[in-house]
């Protein structure tokens, strides 16, 4: 087995705009900070990389297909040790414990939150919630966490009235520079701002509780509560007021960092920035080439890659080295 360069995997007709800069990124060489904001109404703002996860409520949408046409999910189920490694498979079976995306916010995303593991397990029978992280490829503004305590009654009223001004007015607003890494614990309300282009790491679910949907192409009143009803779903939202210092601690200014980008997040995922001459030990990995060109070198293969390409590296490929003038964002599941 060897590294596999993946084609784009973009679920269509999402409820928010974007996708132009994913296309520009995958074409290589574009200045992503100045690519024009969408004017076409394109609604393919996400690229699900190496995905064994489906869009919520779907049976296949979101899953990655290998160049052979086989679903990655089926390949992993047929040989989890080869793809994930013996130690990982012994603990998690066929569960990769990771989903990686490119996300191009052609408009500000709605205010929303994701359930944690305990809520997902108790209410939905799932093994994962949705803690996530963003690694910025272009600067943008984000809204993250409430700045003051919000009562359950206040939140329910804001959602019922779709009082976006009250929601955003109660949240921290902060700039995200290119290269920054932002950890978003499950439960924390957030909204990625227009113009953001990020590599997103997350637990492998598509669980979102919409607090806002007015003006977006989705019936949030019917679809925004995971089928649980808002009286239940809103209990998953962190209504605590976070201090400026607490929120700042979630944003790691990592523009020049080589090595780990998300210290403290290792229970959910691992992220590193690497260059030519760096490498990593055998294990399932997603490599996003964000600059330059070079090669992914394993025991049995040399795989040429360039800026804008994404590669899936199975455990059985062995230890990996990077060669050439390139920068890679490496996403891996938690260590077994």
Automatic annotation (TrEMBL):
Give the GO molecular function terms: kinase activity; metal ion binding
Keyword annotations for this protein, in alphabetical order, are: Kinase, Metal-binding, Transferase, Zinc
Q: Does the keyword Kinase apply?
A: yes
Q: Which InterPro entries match?
A: Carb_Metab_Reg_Kinase/Isom, RmlC-like_jellyroll, RmlC_Cupin_sf
Kindly give the Gene3D superfamilies that the UniProt entry links to this protein.
Answer: Jelly Rolls
Q: Which residues form the signal peptide?
A: none
Give the protein's recorded name.
Answer: Carbohydrate kinase
- Organism equals Serinibacter arcticus
């Amino acid at each position: 087995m060897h590294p596999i360069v993946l084609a784009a995997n973009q679920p269509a007709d999402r409820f928010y705009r974007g996708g132009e800069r994913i296309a520009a990124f995958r074409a290589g060489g574009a200045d992503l900070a100045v690519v024009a904001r969408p004017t076409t109404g394109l609604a393919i703002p996400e690229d699900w990389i190496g995905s064994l996860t489906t869009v919520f409520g779907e049976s296949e949408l979101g899953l990655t297909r290998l160049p052979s046409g086989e679903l990655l999910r089926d390949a992993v189920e047929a040989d989890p040790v080869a793809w994930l490694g013996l130690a990982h498979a012994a603990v998690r079976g066929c569960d990769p414990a990771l989903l990686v995306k490119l996300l191009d916010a052609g408009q500000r995303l709605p205010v929303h939150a994701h359930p944690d593991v305990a809520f997902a397990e108790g209410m939905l029978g799932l093994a994962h919630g949705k803690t996530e992280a963003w690694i910025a490829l272009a600067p943008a503004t984000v809204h993250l966490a409430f700045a003051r305590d919000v009562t359950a009654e206040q939140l329910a009223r804001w959602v019922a009235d779709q009082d976006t001004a009250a929601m955003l007015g109660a949240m921290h607003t902060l700039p995200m520079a290119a290269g920054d890494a932002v950890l978003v614990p499950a439960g924390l309300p957030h909204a990625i701002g227009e113009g953001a282009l990020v590599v997103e790491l997350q637990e492998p679910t598509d669980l979102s509780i919409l607090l806002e949907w007015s003006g977006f192409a989705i019936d949030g009143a019917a679809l925004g509560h995971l089928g649980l009803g808002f009286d239940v779903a809103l209990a998953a939202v962190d209504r605590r007021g976070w201090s400026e210092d607490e929120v700042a601690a979630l944003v790691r200014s990592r523009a020049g960092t080589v090595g780990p980008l998300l210290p403290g997040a290792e229970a959910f995922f691992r992220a590193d920035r690497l260059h030519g001459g760096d490498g990593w030990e055998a294990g399932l990995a997603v490599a996003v080439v964000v600059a330059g060109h070079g090669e992914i070198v394993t025991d049995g293969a040399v795989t040429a890659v360039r800026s804008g390409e994404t590669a899936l590296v199975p455990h059985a490929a062995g230890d990996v080295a990077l060669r050439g003038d390139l920068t890679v964002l490496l996403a891996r599941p938690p260590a077994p």
